[in-house]
Amino acid sequence: MEKRLLRDFIGTKLMLGITIVISVLFFIIFFILLARSIPLLGEASLQEILFSSLWNPEKGSFGLAGILVGTILVTGISLLIAIPISLLCAIYISEYAHERIRHILRPFLDVLAGVPSVVYGLCAFIVLVPFTRDYLAPMFGVESTGLCVFTAAFILAIMVFPIIISLCIECFSAIPIELKEASLSIGATKWETVKKVIFKASRPSIISAILLGFGRAFGETIAVNMVVGGVPKIPGNLFNPAQTLASLIASAYGEMMSVPLYESALMFVALLLFIVVVIFNILGVLFLRRSRRRYRS
Amino acid sequence: MNKRVLEQNIFKALMIISVGIVIGSLVFIVGTIIVNGAFSITLEMLTQTSSGGYYLGRGGGILNAILGSLLLALPATALAYLIGIGISLFLQREFLHPKIASLIRMSLDILWGIPSIIYGIFCLMIMVALGIGASLIAGIVALTLLEIPIITRSMDESIKMVPIGLKEGSYSLGSTKFETAIKVVRRQARPGIIAGVLLGLGRGIGDAASILFTAGFSDSIPASLSDSTAALPTMIYHLYSSPIPAVREKAYAAAFILMVIVTIISILSRRMTRKSMRYIIK
Question: Is B52 inside a domain boundary?
Fold first, then answer.
């Protein structure tokens, strides 16, 4: 009996300990990144770093504007492609598709969600890069190596599909059938029901799906790094190479030890990435919780 | 009236196009990997370690990357499971106030969304502070951190579903909270636990960004925890743009093997979940 109680005591305390450590992991990461980026912040003002587009670590200039613009462009365009397609696809699967088709489509989405990002990057590099270089860019009358904003955004969009689609399907199917029936019974077409009832009722979940998709796209490192070109300047058009925050960290880690402040600058980039992604994830999770509460019970 | 039906038809067509695009993109990914990768697989590729360093090394195969991936992801998943099971059982009502549990769930959800490169760079900082270089152990730690939120939250979702009556039955027989959690709840939640662990394994084995600086790269199979090691994702990342076709072949073969492993994990997850469903009380 004594032994069992002792085991209970030790087991419970162990679980408590692990839980506390992991709960504060988030803050540990934040403070370590912050502490590491202080040397850079002591050297240059925040404005200088964020609004100067001169990134030249060898000469000691760490302007992030070009990289920030690149990140926003790549992420924004990928979401512009992904959001409408994912929403329409989710509506089709949850409202229009036959039960049998739905059963075939779900595993497809699971497979797409499970593909490692480096494989996405490789596929983009093998197929999309030559395609953009040889066909797409000349069609718009520009020269391009194919390693550019557009290619990165396109592959990111494909990576974001399964996230937005599965979150949307989950919330579309949680909407009470009575709501849809009420709309259909007063003579609305199915599309009108989708537009005015389903979209309206699931607005928080759609927003949360988009926010979480944004978080994923914003922080995606490897796939973007493989096709974005890695030039830390403001891109002139969509077929110019650019650089994103996450991708910069991956490509610069090898050389950072040799230049003073370089490491600190990269930590600052990581900190920026961390803060943005965390804000979007918190918003996304809050919206998701609100929408789940709405139709539960 | 006609206009409304027209609108409906237009959007229905758009929906079908969208579904086509999504399926098409999957076919594009899988097709590209099969077309390029399947023919790069030779016996030599699978049984020899690579030689001559990365980028320009023509010789050898990818055995070191395959084994490296397993040596990184399997221990990391085991560690993440041990930590995750502790947390997810502790999030139950008996141990923790639901409000605090909800906050911890939120922090896990946020950790889930943090890009893996952040975990990589975080571990790199710890490694620099401790004075250790790129090694198997550092890679395992980075992957464990990456997998903990995934595994914990998936297990937690299924532990939440364990009927209260079952736990009460266990308590009424005089078992302690810990015994109930380990022996009753864990067993009842097994399908969800298996699914969570395999989800974490799939994510861990395919992730490159977190092990890029922590595990490093090497031509040989790691002999100890302090050796740096190659893995399939980092192999692809380092070799894909090489000017030498033979080296690129290695990256394609690695991608093919990686896709096979990920697919096996996802099929396994489905089957094992269904199988273990038989042993729970409904």
Answer: yes
Which residues of chain B are within 8 Å of residue A249 when distances are taken between CB atoms? 117, 121
- Structural domain that includes position B259: 41-279
DSSP codes of every residue in chain A: -HHHHHHHHHHHHHHHHHHHHHHHHHHHHHHHHHHHHHHHHHHS-HHHHHH---EEGGGTEE--HHHHHHHHHHHHHHHHHHHHHHHHHHHIIIIIS-HHHHHHHHHHHHHHHHS-HHHHHHHIIIIIHHHIIIIIHHHTT----S-SHHHHHHHHHHHHHHHHHHHHHHHHTTS-HHHHHHHHHTT--HHHHIIIIIHHHTHHHHHHHHHHHHHHHHH--HHHHHHSB---S--SSTTS-B--HHHHHHHHTTTGGGSTTHHHHHHHHHHHHHHHHHHHHHHHHHHHHHHHHHH--
Chain B contacts of A25, Cβ < 8 Å?
111, 145
Minimum CA–CA partner of A223 in chain B: B237
Q: Could you please state the CATH topology (level 3) that the domain comprising A46-295 is classified under.
A: MetI-like fold (1.10.3720)
Q: What is the pLDDT of residue B128?
A: 84
Give the chain A residue whose CA is nearest to the CA of B198: A114
Q: How far apart, in whole angstroms, are the C-alpha atoms of residue B179 and residue B161?
A: 18
**ipTM at complex level:** 0.91
Contact A12, B177 (CB under 8 A): yes
User: From CA A171, how far away is CA B145, in angstroms rounded?
Assistant: 29
Domain-located, residue B250: yes
* Contact status of A98 with chain B (Cβ, < 8 Å): no
Interface test with A, best of B55, B110, B268, B273 (most A CBs within 10 A): B110
The set of residues, in sequence order, having a beta carbon less than 8 Å from that of B92 and lying 6+ positions away, is: B101, B159, B181, B185
The CATH number given to whatever domain includes residue B225 is 1.10.3720.10
Burial degree of A99 (CB within 10 A; 0-12, 13-18, 19+): exposed
Amino acid identity of residue A21, one-letter, is V
User: Residue B10: inside a domain, yes or no?
Assistant: no
A158-187 mean pLDDT: 89
pLDDT at B50 over 90: no
Q: Is B17 a member of any domain? A: no
Separation of alpha carbons B239 and B230, rounded Å = 12
Q: How confident is the model at residue A213 (pLDDT cuts 50, 70, 90)?
A: very high
